[in-house]
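Attaching the record inline, Q. Sequence:
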Amino acid sequence: MTLPELLALWHVALAEALLLVALLVAINGLDDMAIDVLWLMMPRHQRQPQRLLPEPPPARFAILIPAWDESAVIGAMLQRLLATLNWPDYAVFVGLYPNDPKGQAAVSALNDPRLHVAVGATPGPTTKADCLNSLWRAALAEEAASGRPFAAIVLHDAEDLVHACELAVFAAHLPEYAMVQLPVLPLPVDFRSLYR
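Structure, as predicted:
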């Protein structure tokens, strides 16, 4: 065979192969087209999307804040947290001591139903663990009284500036992880203030 005859034979074989592939693609698309035709033939009232199941209620969080002798910062911290936290269902528990009247006054001045005070039995200072135990008992008592369990416990210190979307981040990770920790970033400081 000559080269022009081989090229002509190759051209015919390629055309036949392309025809076979086009036929297979068309047959493969028939099932997709059948679904579209059935949808178009449906009465209009059946074409409406089905209503989804209602969303579950948002996770409820307990925020625990131990505070010994933090009257200088606890009021402003709590005021900012309660004003900016972007989440519908949470309770804030502040652990205070019987011998810290300034701290008690700073917290009680806020008068917010989401705010709960747990005054420990032992005068301060004690360990942070002791204060957290008082907070834990207060959170359990509130759960029992309300009949609404907390999905998670969040720990903060009295001087923390809490991001408004923190609880949304926690809620997004709760189904997958048993513990979520967010990075803590220091605030920028003018180094000249260190020498004043």
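The longest helix spans residues 3-41. The chain has two domains: 3-46, 61-173.

More tomorrow.
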